[in-house]
């Protein structure tokens, strides 16, 4: 195992946890999903959060996205400390500053593609400005959704649904997009297309993205890979091949 991973200074980070713990249950049944994790997500980068099942990946992502709170420690989204915010404040913050891409797409089945993409504005009680409308049109074109705008999610393939979810996540130009196993429900070719789109969004638009995955191939599309084990960050690497990432994972399991 390498030395303690270093956390870059605030300002270059879009999300950050310091000494975060998250406990479930009490007494002998107590589980520390996070056990003193410190990590930052770098602005403008595509970061993969990897680790074995149960290592705390989803919990780390949920607390950084304001979907859940920590038991102890601190959490920032950009320069805002969100550690002690209540549900209502977190909801507003999420709507304005975070985009989500989930394994199960999470599109609204009764809305067509155009309305799904504009949903973050709708939920926030505002209409896209002209510039934002042009940006959405650009996303629709570049994601190849132009001839699907009046379709409902069930009329689309899995890959198309995930492209709609990516367009929706990018629509508000959020500080950070969290992607939770975004290729988990896709065949490998479609999965690669989705990963390329995420990597392109980061490179082309400077979109900060954090992706939870257990798949070394998915992680090989990221600029940086953060490894979790037992609720702590145990290692991190800059962009690596799937083979190298598999090797790091194997090393982690052997030394566990
Ligand atoms: P990963 O995403 O890496 O699979 P999770 O963050 O989902 O890991 O879970 C980390 C640990 O916390 C696991 O042992 C899991 O069982 C436990 N855990 C997660 N959520 C809950 C919960 N709501 N109640 C009890 N235990 C939980």
Write the layout of secondary structure elements.
Elements: E1 13-24, E2 31-42, E3 46-50, H1 57-64, E4 72-77, E5 80-81, H2 87-97, E6 98-102, H3 113-123, H4 130-142, H5 158-171, E7 176-180, H6 188-205, E8 209-212, H7 216-219, E9 224-229, E10 232-238, H8 242-255
Parallel strand pairs: 3-8, 3-9, 6-7, 7-8
Antiparallel strand pairs: 1-2, 1-4, 4-5, 9-10
The structure holds adenosine-5'-diphosphate.
The site of adenosine-5'-diphosphate has 11 residues, from strand 2 and helix 1.
What characteristics describe this protein?
disordered N terminus, Rossmann fold, six-stranded mixed sheet, 10 strands, alpha/beta, 36% helix, binds adenosine-5'-diphosphate, 256 residues, four-stranded antiparallel sheet
User: What's the level 1 CATH class?
Assistant: Alpha Beta
Nearest-angstrom radius of gyration?
18 Å
Structural class computed from helices and strand pairing: alpha/beta
Q: What is the number of E strands?
A: 10
Instruction: Quote the average pLDDT.
Output: 92
The set of bound ligands, ions and cofactors reads:
adenosine-5'-diphosphate
CATH level-3 fold name: Rossmann fold
User: What is the general shape?
Assistant: globular
CATH homologous superfamily annotation: P-loop containing nucleotide triphosphate hydrolases
Strand order of the largest sheet: 6-7-8-3-9-10
Largest sheet: 6 strands, mixed
How does CATH name the architecture? 3-Layer(aba) Sandwich
Quickly count the helices.
Answer: 8
């Amino acid at each position: 195992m390498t030395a303690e991973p270093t956390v870059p200074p605030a300002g270059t980070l879009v999300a950050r946890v310091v000494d975060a713990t998250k406990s479930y249950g009490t007494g002998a049944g107590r589980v520390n999903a996070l056990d003193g994790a410190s990590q930052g997500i770098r602005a403008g980068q595509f970061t993969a959060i990897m680790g074995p099942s149960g290592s705390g990946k989803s919990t780390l992502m949920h607390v950084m996205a304001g979907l859940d709170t920590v038991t102890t420690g601190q959490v920032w989204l950009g320069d805002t400390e969100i550690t002690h915010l209540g549900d209502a404040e977190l909801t507003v913050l999420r709507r304005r500053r975070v985009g989500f891409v989930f394994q199960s797409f999470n599109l609204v089945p009764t809305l067509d593609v155009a309305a799904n993409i504009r949903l973050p504005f709708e939920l926030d009680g505002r209409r896209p400005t002209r510039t934002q409308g042009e940006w959405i049109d650009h996303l629709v074109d570049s994601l190849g959704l132009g001839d699907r705008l009046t379709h409902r999610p069930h009329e689309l393939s899995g890959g198309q649904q995930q492209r709609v979810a990516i367009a929706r996540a990018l629509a508000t130009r959020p500080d950070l997009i969290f992607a939770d196993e975004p290729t988990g429900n896709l065949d490998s070719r479609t999965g690669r297309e989705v990963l390329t789109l995420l990597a392109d969004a980061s490179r082309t638009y400077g979109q900060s993205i954090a992706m939870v995955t257990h798949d070394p191939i998915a992680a090989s599309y990221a600029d940086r890979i953060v490894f979790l084990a037992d609720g702590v960050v145990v290692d991190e690497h800059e962009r690596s091949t799937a083979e190298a990432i598999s090797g790091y994972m194997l090393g982690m399991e052997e030394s566990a």
